[in-house]
Design brief:
The complex is a heterodimer. Chain A is an alpha+beta fold. Chain A has helices at 14-24, 37-42, 78-82, 87-94, 109-116, 162-169, 243-250, 264-288, and strands at residues 7-10, 28-31, 50-53, 63-66, 69-73, 127-128, 131-133, 139-141, 144-145, 154-156, 180-182, 185-188, 200-203, 208-211, 220-221, 228-229. Chain A contains eight helices and 16 strands. Chain B is globular. Classes of the chains: A alpha+beta, B alpha+beta.
């Protein structure tokens, strides 16, 4: 269980990391905690030609409330999030005032993800919170999981920094094409008490297929390496008996890749099942929190 | 030990200090991987990716060209195998080759050995070895192995039974089963497990040129057995082999047998006159080491109206994988199950059939408990089922069947 040979680069800044990725090409990977990537490399199931270590980039380790938003640095470890002691931060993170709430269902997708898969060196770089406009002009946080990269919060999107993220957020989805981009932090505005969230994720060796409808008002999911925004139901109230129909509608137009891990048909069906479960979960969380 | 004046010395009731704790707690232990001599070669084994196949070609030239690769050994270089023997006429002897040459019989079976001064380079080299397989039908379960016309794991045998023993036959049992107040028919199965010690198997062998002796450090529960086996397989006098068992990071039975890899390490060190060290990684441990406990029990038990067990008929089948482990053989699980089945209960009439069934899986070793967890499950479930059907208390039925003091 020794990995195949690879180049190792240590980035000192976000800009350098992006430059290295652009220079080294598609077969390079960012590495942060490495808790998923390194075992895959040891099994020789992942063979990046180069690793770009981003763990020494300063300023990416924090969990704090700033300008009314919860801010989580991309290199913040699961362990650090679990040990947050600031009650205000905890409230933002969990959507509840109760301490010790990691044991309870939470409407916050990121907190749910942590509870399911908390690892001391795991980093928070996979979860992005682009902001989308909502009715009445208020902006609501939406969570979108993007697990293409095992080592960093990397998006295959248009080059850009935080400002770029803000521009893309207005479209309500993540940028999907172009050069790589490192998103240095996530932001989550306060959630209204009526909001309900859930998180579903299925992992396979080559790719992950998360879905993240963070509200019964809409759903997002992807089935492959490219995140997609669902065109599914956008209604204020969804009842249980329509979840199946809603899930079917949400995967309309979805054409995931077929590879050795799963067929396109299987992935599509999987997304449908998970969307249905996620909607069910969302209602359940709302009732319990 | 208590040595109070006027009283006999006794260990009973006395606290016994553990002698190993200081070293374990301070990191002063010495495992095989802590040992290394200058110029040590590290092997990586080319292992079968198929459960059943014939080998009609093995190409190692590309591996020899990988930077760092010093030697690639195949069955042509290291002949021989392990032949476990059981002194029973019902036992079928098979050979577990050190390196497969003409056929592979389970995933993970070693085919070639790539040696370099770096495990990284060794694994790079192992990747370059090309094995030309002709896949054959896989025998993946006991049911498939025992079916009429089933493909045979070993061509030289008539079937897939490596052991089929009828034990403790009782002429009265059938009549007892037919007239008993209660007869319980049941089937119990248990899944395959592996030991997974924190320290996998490990071996370091080096040839001492001055003393003319092969010294082997091996993570084992049975160093003397390892020495005898190395001497036998390599064809050298036993006093030329010295085996040292340093600290062992868990064994659980996995290390009370002798594996092919330990012998190959010794053979390579003897052949190359270089130190050779192999540390089993977790992938190898899961797929290529010894397994155990995949068993099936078809039982019939007779009880009288008072809950007393009158007789038991047990048909025991154990999936022993592709080969017999050395030296205990594949008979270890079925024979242990059959002989100890009654456990703490008084049993007047008992019959057992014990079978070792060959399949295309990793061979079994006497993993901890050796069938006792299974036979305990069987007997205790029989007691529970009988108690329920007779309307008895589960404790009372056991009390009535226990061997009296």
């Amino acid at each position: 269980m020794k990995p195949a040979g690879f180049q190792y680069h240590r980035a000192a800044s976000v800009e350098e990391a992006i430059h290295l990725m652009e220079t080294l090409g598609e077969d390079a990977k960012f590495i942060a905690g490495g808790q998923s990537l390194v075992p895959m490399m040891n099994f020789r199931l992942a063979r990046p030609t180069a690793l770009i270590d981003i763990t020494r980039i300063p300023g990416l380790h924090h969990v704090k409330v700033e300008d009314g938003c919860l801010r989580i640095g991309a290199l913040t470890t699961h362990q650090a999030v679990e040990r947050v002691s600031d009650p205000v931060v905890l409230f933002r993170l969990l959507g509840t005032r109760a301490r010790g709430a990691l044991d309870r269902p939470s409407p916050h997708p990121h907190a749910r993800h942590l509870r399911r898969q908390s690892r001391s060196r795991g980093s928070c770089r996979r979860v992005v919170h682009p902001r989308t406009p909502s009715r009445g002009g208020r902006r609501r946080g939406r969570a979108l999981a993007y697990a293409h990269d095992l080592g960093s919060q990397l998006l295959r999107g248009v080059p850009g920094d935080r400002a770029g993220v803000q521009r893309d957020d207005r479209r309500g989805s993540l940028p999907l094409v172009g050069a790589p981009r490192l998103v240095p932090r996530t932001r989550s505005p306060p959630r209204r008490l009526c909001s309900r969230g859930c998180w579903g994720e299925v992992g396979s060796r080559g790719r992950r297929m998360p879905i993240g409808p963070d509200s019964p008002r809409g759903s997002r999911r992807h089935a492959g390496s490219i995140p997609r925004r669902g065109g599914g139901p956008d209604r204020r109230t969804i009842a249980h008996h329509v979840f199946d129909d809603a899930a079917r509608a949400s995967v309309q137009g979805l054409t995931p890749v077929s590879d050795v891990h799963a067929s396109s048909r299987h992935r599509r069906r999987l997304a449908e099942v998970l969307v249905c479960r996620a909607l069910d979960d969302a209602v359940g969380f709302g009732a319990s929190s | 030990m208590s040595t109070k004046p006027g009283q006999p010395a006794t260990w009973i009731g006395q606290p016994v200090l553990r002698v190993e704790d200081p070293a374990l707690l301070t990191g002063a232990t010495r495992f095989v991987d802590d040992l290394e001599s200058a110029g040590t070669l590290h092997p990586s084994f080319v292992r079968s990716s198929l459960a059943a196949a014939r080998i009609h070609g093995l190409r190692v030239e590309a591996a020899r060209r990988v930077p760092g690769v010093e030697v690639v050994l195949t069955a042509a270089d290291v002949e021989g195998g392990l032949r476990a023997v059981l002194n029973r006429p019902e036992f079928a002897i098979t050979t577990m080759p050190l390196l497969a040459s003409d056929a592979v019989r389970h995933v993970g079976e070693p085919i070639a050995m790539v040696l370099t001064e770096s495990r990284y380079a060794a694994e790079d080299g192992a990747e370059e070895v090309i094995v030309d397989y002709d896949p054959t039908q896989v025998v993946s379960s006991m049911e498939a192995a025992l079916a009429a016309g089933a493909p045979r794991v070993h061509d030289e045998l008539d079937d897939n039974l490596l052991l089929d023993v009828a034990m403790y036959d009782d002429a009265e049992l059938e009549e007892i089963l037919s007239v008993a107040a209660l007869t319980v028919d049941a089937t119990f199965t248990t899944g395959r497990v592996t030991a997974v010690p924190i320290e996998g198997r490990a071996s370091l062998a080096e040839w001492d040129r001055r003393e003319g002796r092969l010294t082997v450090y091996v993570s084992t529960q049975v160093p003397h057995l390892v020495r005898t086996t190395i001497a036998d397989v390599l064809g050298i006098p036993e006093d030329v082999v010295r085996v040292i068992a340093p600290d062992v990071g868990g064994g659980f039975g996995l290390k009370c047998v002798v594996g092919r890899e330990e012998l190959l390490v010794a053979a390579a060190a003897l052949r190359l006159r270089r130190p050779v060290k192999w540390i089993e990684d977790r992938q190898e441990n899961f797929t290529s080491s010894f397994h155990g406990h995949e068993q099936r029990y078809d039982v019939r038990a007779a009880f009288d109206a008072d809950g007393v067990m009158l007789g038991l008929d047990a048909n025991i089948s154990c999936d022993v994988g592709a080969y017999s482990c050395y030296p205990f053989s594949c008979g270890v699980e079925p024979l242990m199950a059959a002989t100890e089945m009654p456990g703490p209960y008084r049993l007047r009439h008992y019959r057992a059939r014990a079978r070792a069934v060959a399949t295309n899986k990793a061979p079994i070793a006497p993993y901890r408990g050796v069938s006792r967890p299974q036979i305990t499950l069987v007997m205790e479930r029989l007691m529970d089922i009988a108690a329920t059907r007779l309307g008895m208390d589960a404790v009372e039925i056991r009390r009535r069947n226990l061997i009296a003091a």
